[in-house]
Design goal:
Distance between the termini: 62 Å
Number of domains: 1
Number of strands: 4
Helix content: 55-70%
Largest sheet: 2 strands, antiparallel
Shape: globular
């Protein structure tokens, strides 16, 4: 009797198993369809929603035997996350000069921030573990460039239809007592602009699709470089022409936003990129910057936009409030310098008197948010020295680690991180600015592993 040979067994311990790949759709769909998420009322919530399948896919690939890479300097980021968690223990503290509340009253906002920090951590690891086959770097750059186009389109919408807003589907599903809260409204209620009185009379300041004018300006700086890289690396004249048109159109909302932080950020961006190219021996960048500056000057002189800038510079209504909040943040930091207070606090009254506070007739009177006027001040106040060192250490290490990358991705990615360091003096980073920062880090990281992006 002949016995048939046994068939070979397959599985983790017998034979080989095809490695599990990571699909690109969790990252690509966030960016490609962000206007849709915004209109649906998901907006920044899409980052937390997509973190769930991303985490599942990462764990599945790890279970299949494929190792997961962690970004260089991840220990710094882990230190930051630990500080965020540990500092929650100080939520019940009421620093001098702040409104007394129970720790549970502050827990919702703190839990939201923690969830978003964890979601963006998953995004960082996921985007960094994608291969050139799964999600080409060039495609990710194009998606980030698309986000700049979306930002400009939202800015134009805010200019021409400043009062435009609508009730989103997600908003409709929420109970009235929930959806009418200011914090919830900022997440699920789409609107084109914030209406503010900064230069005499209430005027719209572009915010769509990022919720706040300051976030709009922050993202403008973080994404501009990717649009330029995507257009010029395409090798197609029509994309370059479209990019130039987009840049020209972007001038108007950038000026009308009255966003001085944006203007400073653009200056930092141009100086940094020009310096990188000069050090690389590409002196032609000096001519490009000179011509661009001359064209911008002509545009500002020949149009009313120049007057808008002058009016904004002559009306520094927010300077006193910012100075007041920085002082309160530093005073609070000295009271809990190691782990901070776990979150922000509301001041007693305004900067001139504790008797000036929020009321039905003046919702913006007093009760300012300590730590709400810049990521640096929030880090120091909410998470102390440990959290601040961990957060800054991670991105600073990335800048140092990838400093020799002179490719378009290397320059654009490091430029985004450099502008984020200047922006943290007046902008908070959560959620979308930090998302674009970790994607810039992921591209720099992948570039260091896979080499300069392909040219064809």
């Amino acid at each position: 009797m002949t016995v048939a040979p046994a068939l070979p067994r397959t599985g983790p311990a017998h034979g080989t198993r095809k490695p599990t790949t990571l699909p690109a759709w969790p990252v690509a769909s966030i960016l490609a369809f962000y206007p849709l998420w915004w209109a649906l009322g998901l907006g920044v919530l899409i980052f937390a929603a997509m973190a769930v399948p991303m985490l599942f896919l990462l764990l599945r690939r790890r279970a299949a035997g494929r190792p997961l890479r962690l970004p260089p300097g991840f220990g710094w980021w882990a230190l930051f996350l630990v500080a965020v968690v540990v500092s929650i223990g100080a939520l019940g503290a009421d620093p001098p000069g702040t409104v007394a509340e129970h720790a549970t009253d502050r827990l919702t906002a703190v839990a939201y921030k923690l969830i978003m920090y964890l979601a963006l951590t998953v995004l960082l690891v996921y985007a960094g573990n994608l291969t050139e086959v799964e999600l080409p770097r060039r495609r990710l750059v194009k998606l980030l460039g698309w986000m700049f186009v979306v930002t400009v389109a939202g800015g134009v919408l805010g200019m021409v239809a400043g009062t435009f807003e609508f009730t989103s589907p997600v908003e409709m599903l929420l109970p009235p007592g929930v959806r009418n809260k200011g914090f919830v409204q900022s997440l699920v209620h789409p609107y084109a602009a914030q209406i503010m009185d900064l230069v005499g009379g209430e005027k719209p300041r572009p915010a769509a699709p990022w919720g706040y004018t300051n976030t709009w300006g922050n993202n403008f700086c973080l994404l501009l470089g990717w649009m330029v890289v995507a257009a010029w690396r395409s090798g197609r004249g029509k994309y370059k022409f479209a990019a130039v048109i987009c840049l020209l159109v972007s001038i108007a909302p950038a000026v009308v936003s009255l966003n001085r932080g944006l203007w400073i950020g653009l200056g930092v961006l141009v100086i940094y990129v020009a310096a990188r190219y000069v050090l690389a021996g590409k002196l032609w960048i000096i001519g490009v910057v000179t011509v661009a500056a001359a064209m911008l000057t002509v545009a500002l002189v020949a149009t009313p936009l120049g007057g808008v800038i002058s009016a904004r510079l002559d009306n520094g209504k927010s300077n006193g409030v910012r100075s007041f909040l920085v002082d309160r943040a530093l005073d609070g930091f000295t009271g809990s310098p190691v782990i901070g207070y776990g979150g922000t606090r509301s001041t007693l009254g305004g900067r001139n008197s504790i008797a000036v506070g929020e009321s039905a007739g003046c919702e913006r009177c007093g009760n300012f948010t300590v730590g709400g006027n810049g990521q640096l001040w929030q880090l120091l106040y909410a998470h102390g020295t440990v959290g601040t060192v961990g957060y800054l250490g991670f991105f600073a290490y990335g800048l140092w680690r990838f400093r020799r990358d002179r490719s378009p991705i290397g320059v654009a990615g490091s430029a985004a991180l450099v502008t984020s360091f200047s922006a943290m003096l007046w902008y908070n980073s959560l959620v979308t600015p930090l998302a674009f920062m970790v994607l810039a880090f992921a591209l720099l990281w992948r570039n260091s592993i896979e080499g300069n992006e392909p040219t064809t």
